Amino acid sequence: MHINLTGHHIEVTDALKSYVDNKFERLARHFDHVINAHVILSVEKIEQKAEARLHVNGSTLFADAVHEDLYAAIDGLVDKLDRQILRYKEKRHNHRSSAVKAAE
Fold it and tell me: Which superkingdom (predicted)?
């Protein structure tokens, strides 16, 4: 998975980059058909925001999270994306199994 990391009003440090890479490895463990991910980290006064857009086969998943701590926002973002990926995987599996039953 190719991760494109961008910062708005924040400098993307090596620590942030490695933290995002480690967290997104969890997503790759569940679903390895992610083509690329675009992650945007931004700061607006007190709020730290993390948002991501994942491109998978035939679909795009989007999630964002806002928290006072940027690392907590990244954790929330990955949790949301993880749930979306599992739901997407289940939809694909159910669609395939219903097509096989219809063919029989």
Answer: Bacteria
User: Which residues touch 57 (CB under 8 Å, ≥6 apart)?
Assistant: 33, 35
**Has domain 2-103 been given CATH number 3.30.160.100?**
yes
Q: Is the pLDDT of residue 40 over 90?
A: yes
* Cβ pair 35, 56 in contact under 8 A: yes
**Whether the predicted pLDDT of 97 surpasses 70:** no
Burial class (CB in 10 A: 0-12, 13-18, 19+), 5: middle
Radius of gyration of the chain (CA): 16
pLDDT bucket at 81, cuts 50 / 70 / 90: very high
